[in-house]
Design a protein that fits this description.
Distance between the termini: 26 Å
CATH superfamily of the largest domain: FAD/NAD(P)-binding domain
Order of helices and strands: EHEEHHEEHEEHEEEEHHEEHEEEHHH
Number of domains: 2
CATH architecture of the largest domain: 3-Layer(bba) Sandwich
Radius of gyration: 22 Å
Mean pLDDT: 92
CATH class of the largest domain: Alpha Beta
Oligomer: single chain
Length: 436
Amino acid sequence: MSKNEVLIIGGGLAGCEAAMQIASRKIKARIIEMRPNKMTPVHKTGNLAELVCSNSLKSTNPVTANGILHQEMRKLGSVVMKAADFARVPAGQALAVDRVVMSKKIEEMLLSTGYVEIERKEITSIPEETPCIIATGPMTSEALSKDLSDLLGGEYLYFYDAVAPIVSTESIDKSLTFKASRYNKGEAEYINCPLNKEEYDKFYNELINAEIVQDSHGFEQVFFESCLPIEEIASRGYDTLRYGPMKPVGLRHPSTGQDNYAVVQLRQENKEATMYSLVGFQTRLKWGEQKRVFSLIPALKNMEILRYGVMHRNIFINAPSSIAPTSETLVKKGLFIAGQLSGVEGYVESSASGILCGINAARYIKGEDLIVFPQETGFGSLMNYITSADPDNFQPMNINMGLFPAIEKRFPSKKDKNTAIAQIAEDVFDEFIKTI
C-alpha cells in the first residue's frame, strides 16, 4: 500500500464519508467492499452506502440533536448529506431518501474526485499497513470479527436490529387513509392508516400471538430500545403501541376533524412514490405472519409486501475500552474504527463517525496531531459518550440532547433549553473547525 494512501475496509455510509474526507485532502482512499461477491443477511445489492433499515436520516430541525449533527456534517463537506439532499423524498421534517438514487449519487461523487478507488473482495484479517479504517458495520463478517476481537482483547457485544416491511403504493386502500404530518408540521407527506378500537383490539391480539422467527444461534436477544420489534413493544402492554409507533395524537383527519384510536403511518420510500414503509414496524415475525397480521390494518387489507421485515444481529466493539475519542484504537496506532461497529447507532451518527476517521487518517499520514471534537458539539458529544461510558454496561447510542454538557441556567421551556444547547454547539463547532 502506498504511503500516501488510506485503506478503508467497508463501503457503507461511514466508509464513504471517510473516503471523501481523505480524497478532499488529495490523499488516495482505497475502499474494499466484499459485496456483491459476498452478501450479508440484510443487504440486497452491492451498492456502496446501501440503506438497509429505514430510508430516513431523521429530523432536520436544527434545535434537535440530530439536526445539530446534520449541520456540522454539512460544514465538513459530508458526501452523505449532499447525496441525501439530491435523493430526498417527501417526509415532513424528516430527511427521507430514495435509497437507490442516494447510493448511486454517493459512488458517483466519490469516483469523480480522482482519489478514490473501489475494490470488490472480502478482507478476513486486519491489514498490517496503516493508516487503515475499519468501517464494516454491524454485519461484519465472521472472520474479520474474530481477528478484530483478538486484537482488541475482548469479546464483541451485540444487539438485535430489525427492519420494517415495505409495501406497494398501489396496494394501499387510499379510501381508508388520509395524508398528514403530525401536528400539521410541514407538508402532509405521510399516508395515515387509522384504526378504531375494535380494529385495534383485533390487530393487537393477533400481533402478540403471532409466530416469530427464533434465533438459530442461541444468543440472548438484546434489543436496541429505539428500534424494538413491533411485537416486542406490544408485549409490554395493551397501550404501548398507542403511545409508540401507532400513536394517534396530532393526526386528526384533515377533512372530518375526527380523532382516531390508533394510526399507522406510511413513509414514502422512493422518488416515484411506488413504495411506502410502515413507520416503526420493524419486526421478527415470520413472513407469512407479517402478511396475515399487518393485513388487519384496514387500509392494508390488500397490501403487497415488496420487502418483508427481517431481524439480524448487529456487532459492535466495546468502545470505552477499545478506542480513543479520535476513533483510533488504543492497541494499534493508525488503525481507526468507524460507523456502527464503533458503537454509535444510526445512519447520521455512523456517517459522522466516518468523517472523523477520514479527517484523522489524513492527519496521521501527514504527521499531524489527531483531533478530538469538543463535547459541546454534536461530533464531540457522541464520541465522548462511546469512549467514556461504563465498559461493563456499554450499549450503542443515538445522538441526543442528554449527551451534551448540562447548562446550569433555568429555561422557560425544553424548547428554549434545546435552542440554547444548539447555539452553543454551533458557536463552539465553528470556532473549532477554524483550527483544523
